[in-house]
Write a structure and sequence with these properties.
The protein is largely without helices or strands and about 80 residues long. The chain contains no helices and two strands. It has a two-stranded antiparallel ribbon. It starts with about 45 loop residues before the first strand and ends in a 20-residue tail after the last strand.
Length: about 80
Amino acid sequence: QVRTRNGRVCQRWDSQYPHKHGETGAEYPTSDLRENFCRNPNGTGVYIWCYTTDPATRWELCDKLGVPPLHHDCPSGHAYRE
């Protein structure tokens, strides 16, 4: 997918505009940083994300297609799926 949870369009990973970044295919060769797809380049955490094409919003989380989003209102602070 190429949109964030909030509907913003993702910036291409091989572009440094409007946000400069260090997540490149050369830096993360096994992360499939093609086009402007949501990814998790360094493999930490459970979320995919992307830099956005909105100059006012550097990056945002994405929800994996076909997977219910995680919620964060659990009293113990853990994320969970409904």
